[in-house]
Amino acid sequence: MGTLVTLVSTRVEGRVGDAVCGVFGGKCADARQRAGGLGDSGGAGGGDGTGHGPSPVPSPSPGPTVPQPPTPPPPKEQSETENVLNETQLGRDALKWVKDHGVRVIYRPGGGSYYDGDANVFYVDTNQSPEDRANTFVHEVNHAEHRNDPDIKKLSRDEFIDKSIDEETEGTVEAIQNNQELQKNRNGNAPDTLLQQEYEDAYNAAVARENAARQKAQRPPLDAAGEKAVGEKAGRERVKQAFVNGEVVSSVDGHKYADNYGKAWDDAHDCFLWIFC
After folding, report:
1. Which of 103, 181, 235, 250 has the highest count of CB atoms within 10 angstroms of its CB?
2. Taking Cα atoms as reference points, which of 175, 97, 99, 177 lies closest to residue 138?
């Protein structure tokens, strides 16, 4: 319908225009052609009066190049954090993952540091030191890598809490290992990070117990790989214990992690009058 109206309108307009021009001496067709309007052939851009199509219209000359404003430098806190991250392999891997997956990183004072999976945004609390921000960055990238896992809809409440705390534990251990590498590269000139002392105490105690048992049984001590396996297992268990018993609380609201994950599960399974379950 729209096409038909356009065609009819165009033809009527042309005939009315021709009729009016006839009254004034029939000179309008030439004027229309010079103005680049519709010629007698009905083509766009006007004909040349010979029926051979539209006359060429010269392209406008390109204007002067418009200078673009310079890209503003990143915030000081971002540069500080990324400088620390680039000192370790885990830090470099975290930066690359964020860039490759389009995670938006926002640095702002207060509010805690956390990853918003729905918006794919990582908020970094600049009230932390650059080292703490870097370790937190590594921790939160672990959350981003496990986005929507565990699945809150497919697990029981206790299963969801347990697996969520496992994820917190893994991120915290990665942050500890990142800080250990940072301290090694700086010859010890970096403070411990969250639960690092507890992790290392459990690690060393487990290795010592295993080697003592081996000595009693007249077996050789653990090699480096064995120490790492035994120590990391004990260290992870100690870190998880801190999340379970409330020794560590959320930096966002100060609540226990188990309570927050339990509430998240409750909210996800809350049905309005049990109609829409």
Report:
1. 235
2. 175
